[in-house]
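Marked as duplicate of an earlier ticket. Keeping the data here for the record.
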Amino acid sequence: MSRTSRLFMLLDALRGHRRPVTATRLAEALSVSLRTIYRDIGTLVELGAPIDGEAGIGYVLRAGFFLPPLMFTEDELEALVLGARWVERQGDAGLARAAGTALATPLMTIATAKLPVTQFKHLNSWLARIEARESWQRTASPAPGVAAA
């Protein structure tokens, strides 16, 4: 894996945690040495990433540091969430983990956004629609050619 890919993976790993995460845990998640994590954290900080923490305590990516938002319609977001949640339940361990990671960024953005109360009401109704569709999917029969779980 290239260093650039590893740095992006480290940012993604930090983005997925609201509380400080130890370098040991990050090293295990990325399958690299502890020394590599310390070096990569230093590089990211030098490049301007707002990472707080220190060796032995843990690291956290400060709120507000996100990649530019992807613009999806409400239906597209709903399809992505439903699909990823299905893969989390039906896929092998690697795919399930990848689906959870894929959802972490947009859901974290939604959760940490400073939205007016009216937006939260809209978000709650949208999440309720997703839950209703997921409930329907769990009771529906599998598609032709797909083995039942």
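See parent ticket for discussion. Residues 117-139 form the longest helix (23 residues).
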